[in-house]
Amino acid sequence: MKTPLFLYNSYSRTKEAFKPLDKKNVRMYVCGPTVYDRAHIGNARPVLVFDILFRLLRYLYKEHNVTYVRNITDIDDKINAKAIKRGVNIEKVTEATIELFHKDMDFLGALRPNHEPRATEYVSEMIDMISKLISLSFAYPTEDGHVFFEVATFSDYGRLSNKNLSELKEGVRIENENAKKNPLDFVLWKPSNLEEPGWESPWGRGRPGWHIECSAMAKDILGDQFDIHGGGIDLIFPHHENEIAQSTCSNNMKKFANFWLHNGFLKIEGEKMSKSLNNFLTVYDLIKRDFSGPAIRFNMLATHYRQPLDWKFERLVEAEKTLIKWNNKFEPKNQTVLPMQILNALLDDLNTPQSIYEMHQLFNNEKFDDLSNACRFFGFSSKDIKDGISIPPDISEKIDKLVEKRNNARLAKNFSLADEIREDLLRAGIIIKDSGQETTWESGQKLEIKKLKKL
Ligand code: AMP
Ligand code: ZN
To answer: Is residue 384 part of a domain?
Structure first.
């Protein structure tokens, strides 16, 4: 690669040249949604911003060398409250919300991440991590069934948010003050009453705190250290600060993620989006108003990801018109080669507004071939949007091996083993197809990477 990719690292507060730890497995973790309500367009911002980064990494390092994890937070007090209000169980709320989240994000043309781990599937990994933190004296249990991380034991606490402990203290919520050694200490585990979801643990029946979820899931899927960690700017403190503390201390590593990337906040017509101001806008509201997925993407990416974004309907209508104009000139082709000036803009900390400016230039200069290629990369072509789920390379190898094992079993007339393998794969979302001598496999809609890993 001639020009390296430069990314603004919130941790060092500078633009740095990106160099993956392993260019055969470039790893990115982004904090995903808490699934109690339909996604608003603010939630769609990190999804679309990191979708562009995912696409760029796949372009630079090849698709099969990039692993993108975006978790689903399905343990949360807001979820519990909603389930109680509706008189249904928690899974009803989370399953339905996850399905709608997928529908909305597919509509926006966001590629599905390689892994979408759910907190409920990782409780035992979280318990292990908390136990380790206690045994290393970074955390302490209290008599009432809480476990807290002791912030004073971690000298780098506050480095990401660039604040000292007394400044940080001003920003923390006052809760469980009596049980904590220090107001900044944060919850790793909390007790559950009988109405609340709970898991057995060494500290009694309870549930994990929010921050430990991401540390445990990132470790399990990406390892103790990986390349990029992303999310909205509101997550810097306390969420990401706490993730760093938990992960570096329990893994005994100097570093957790090498790069921290944060998208700015989205406002609507100049105002903070909120239910009380009656300007709360979901992705589904836009779909109902017949806006297209590509136009919503275009409007989102027309502002640089680190800038605050002011969502204006007027601009969305403009985006729709521009894309209709461009789509009329599209050249059908299967290959995506990014025009140099657009690649250069993206290599400079994902400069998407500059990329869009260059696309206008391509249109004006009648370079429709280049324009089509760029639009295809950005997901601006209405024809290119489909639900895509990608499978990470190690898992795909594993599936190949299982398919081979099944074929051998069939040759040896061990049909019960062959059927068992087929069933196992099917339960994990992989469909095996036999046609003549050839056996192929494909992923269905409900891919369960965790199950695949265990096969
Ligand atoms: P949540 O479901 O609230 O945990 O948020 C999921 C993601 O959406 C996080 O990365 C948040 O930082 C991000 N997010 C939430 N609201 C906004 C907003 N108004 N603008 C930009 N990002 C947001
Ligand atoms: Zn997180």
So the answer is: no
